[in-house]
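> example.struct
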């Protein structure tokens, strides 16, 4: 890897193309280095993973709305269109990326990477796949595009913290998806450079979408970034340019949105000829909840079986979770969001509440993507009583481990202390989720397939599930006309297009 120093430059410096981060990203995208076999295998896993969570979301309101919008935009010129999850109809690629992006993101249940900032790198897949289907690319082209998309997003997340300035993490997704599309289409560096800049410029927004009363926009935000990346590539291919330099300019992103005119970041990017392997640093979710809740669900399940007395609020005086800065201040009591303790809060709010998630997993000894968020489950009196006894605090050591670049000690958990009303105390800790590559039960192909079958049950027929899995596992060999096979048809009666909401289009 080459560590690139990135800082603000005055306009009079006329910073050269090759010295700009967006151009360096473009140079990575045009590098024709082969995708290594283990990366290809993980790409397949993540295509299956995305399909799992998309299928499970097909009847949820945000997906119904986004799908209706996409269907109101027919297949555009110069291509065959792109598939929309769950139905046998196509749309233009940017709108298919939108609809499928919302489906993938709605349940907060796909892959993640956490470092200086947060990300869900699987959000690259809907946009890149939609463009591939529309333009007649092969499965091998898709694999190459996704390797780039993951690489750029992970490298940006390792280096540049957006959250500190309350900027939503999808500001790293626009550039990564644009770069991935550029790789897949074989575009030149200048075109990709302009697309990266436009994608960043149009996808930088505040984190209010993940604060307080969290709305349905949480699922739409990454889909919007993917859609903007597709449109940015289209404009760049037509010769249109972007704000330059987008990162380093004196009125650019770093100077006025991030750490300011005196800031400097070090962004690692692969050297020419170096394989793109960042995808292997990412990890998926076993549970439908914010990633920093994954380990806590696993620990709560363990405590449920080892200490069943703690499921009764009458036996518990307090529960204190000591964890990283990000976990405490984003999904813990340090966020100072009263909604995180509100039984009538939205699902989007509850899946960003460690106090709620830990309580339900502790009482139930399990976690379900639907049942665990049901209003009747959140409002159960004994749950509310116990839930309000749970608090978090930052522990400097867990913060250090969260930010560690050493994969062997990088952690997303913490310790818990449960004080009992009889004077006793129960303590335990967990570093990573069970499904993490270093966890108790790491996910491999078998687990990805099992997750798919579990979430698809009752939504698609067994024959359709088998067909999709067979197609997905042949991804590197798929011809252009076979990419449509990565779409999934819902079983009869699951999707009712006649009840689609109406808007402007």
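> example.seq
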């Amino acid at each position: 890897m080459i560590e690139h120093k990135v800082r603000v430059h005055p306009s009079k410096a006329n910073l050269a193309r090759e010295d700009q981060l967006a151009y360096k990203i473009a140079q990575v995208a045009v590098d024709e280095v082969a995708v290594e076999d283990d990366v290809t295998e993980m790409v397949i896993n993540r295509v299956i993973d995305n399909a799992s969570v998309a299928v499970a979301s097909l009847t949820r309101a945000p997906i119904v709305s986004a799908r209706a919008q996409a269907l109101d935009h027919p297949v555009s010129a110069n291509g065959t269109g792109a598939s929309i999850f769950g139905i046998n109809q196509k749309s233009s690629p940017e709108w298919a990326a939108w609809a499928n992006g919302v489906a993938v993101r709605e349940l907060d249940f796909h892959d993640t990477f956490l470092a200086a900032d947060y990300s869900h790198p699987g959000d690259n897949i809907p946009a890149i796949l939609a463009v591939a289907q529309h333009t007649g690319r092969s499965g091998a082209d898709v694999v190459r595009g996704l390797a780039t998309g993951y690489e750029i997003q992970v490298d940006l997340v390792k280096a540049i913290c957006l959250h500190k300035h309350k900027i939503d993490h999808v500001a790293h997704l626009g550039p990564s998806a644009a770069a991935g599309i550029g790789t897949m289409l074989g575009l030149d560096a200048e075109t990709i450079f302009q697309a990266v800049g436009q994608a960043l410029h149009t996808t930088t927004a505040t984190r209010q979408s993940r604060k307080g009363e969290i709305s349905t926009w949480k699922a739409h935000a990454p889909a919007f970034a993917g859609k903007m990346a597709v449109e940015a590539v289209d404009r760049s291919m037509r010769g249109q340019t972007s704000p330059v330099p987008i990162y380093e300019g004196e009125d650019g992103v770093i100077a006025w949105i991030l750490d300011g005119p005196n800031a400097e970041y070090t962004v690692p990017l692969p050297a020419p000829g170096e394989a793109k392997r960042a995808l292997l640093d990412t990890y998926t979710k076993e549970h439908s909840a914010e990633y920093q809740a994954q380990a806590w669900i696993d620990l709560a399940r363990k405590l449920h079986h080892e200490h069943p007395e703690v499921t009764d609020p009458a036996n518990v005086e307090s529960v204190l979770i000591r964890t990283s800065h990000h976990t405490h201040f984003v999904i813990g009591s340090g966020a100072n969001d009263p909604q995180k303790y509100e039984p009538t809060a939205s699902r989007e709010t509850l899946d960003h509440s460690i106090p709620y998630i830990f309580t339900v997993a502790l009482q139930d000894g399990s976690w379900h993507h639907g049942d665990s968020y049901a209003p009747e489950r959140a409002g159960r009196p004994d749950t509310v009583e116990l839930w309000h006894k749970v608090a978090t605090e930052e522990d400097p050591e867990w913060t250090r481990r969260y930010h560690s670049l050493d994969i062997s000690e990088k952690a997303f958990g913490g310790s818990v202390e449960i004080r009992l009303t009889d004077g006793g105390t129960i303590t335990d800790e967990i570093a990573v989720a069970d499904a993490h590559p270093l966890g108790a039960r790491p996910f491999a192909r078998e687990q990805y397939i099992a997750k798919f079958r579990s979430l698809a049950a009752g939504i698609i027929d067994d024959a359709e599930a088998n067909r999709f899995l067979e197609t997905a596992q042949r991804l590197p060999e798929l011809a252009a006309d076979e990419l449509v096979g990565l779409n999934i048809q819902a079983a009869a009666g699951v999707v009712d297009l006649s009840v689609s909401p109406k808007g402007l289009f």
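> remarks
Residues 139-159 form the longest helix (21 residues).
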